[in-house]
Amino acid sequence: MRLPRRDLIAFIGAAVTLWPLAGAALPAKVPTIGVLVVGSPASERFWRLFQQDMREFGYIEGGNVRYEFRSDMGQAARLPALAEEMVRLQVDLIVVWFTPAALAAKQATHQIPIVMALVGNPVETGLVASLAKPGGNVTGWPPSVRNWQANW
Known about the structure:
The chain is an alpha/beta fold. The protein contains five helices and five strands; from the N terminus they run H-E-H-E-H-E-H-E-E-H. The protein has a single domain, classed as Response regulator (Rossmann fold, 3-Layer(aba) Sandwich), CATH 3.40.50.2300. The longest helix is centred in the N-terminal third of the chain and has 16 residues. The radius of gyration is 14 Å and the shape is globular.
């Protein structure tokens, strides 16, 4: 089923588009989305699918959006440094896949919004206060996003 993945991409796009409206007027700039994933042989495939879906929603890299993609390449100890790099790059939003990447991003910033997907129980892992009211800068996607994983 492709719908949950499309919904996730739409959610990410809306977050990037609307987040600057929540603060003071900012100079016009191309938003940058940081993407942090736990590495595996599928990381490159994930990256292509992510970019393809974002293009279908009108987000064109080098046009109206910029991406900073990072993978730990199977070395989880690299995640904190990669998350801190996203903060130094001043990305506008961090998209994370899997719990270790989400935890590293949350540790690295309390300011930049983080959208997580395919994580374990976010309450039990301390990523959010509750599912109804996550609090902080971390939000996520409903459990139905797990259906997206079947498309890999």
